[in-house]
Amino acid sequence: xxxxxLCLVLACWATHPLRGQDLDSAAVRVPLDSALRLADRAAAxxxxxxxxxxxYSIVPRALKGDPGGLHWQVRWQEKTFPHRRWLLxxxxxxxxxxxxxxxxx
Length: 105
Prior knowledge:
4 strands; alpha+beta; single chain; four-stranded antiparallel β-sheet; 105 residues; 28% helix
């Protein structure tokens, strides 16, 4: 009986429409193509070993408590297995400021 209830809850949840976040075009002063070039330059200067990484993703983000607000998050994944190292560059949409970070997961 408990399993049937769980299945019913999951079925109802799965049919609920997902809502994405829309970006206001007025808030985006740095478009995606410019952000990718800025991120590439920032990663090249911050990470001399970037040739050992491959571009993985670029997504719009807004981190809670981040005073910079909306940004493009660009991630490079280590080419060698087990792919646990990442290079992360955030390019802020309002002014093009870039921050870099190396992650190990």
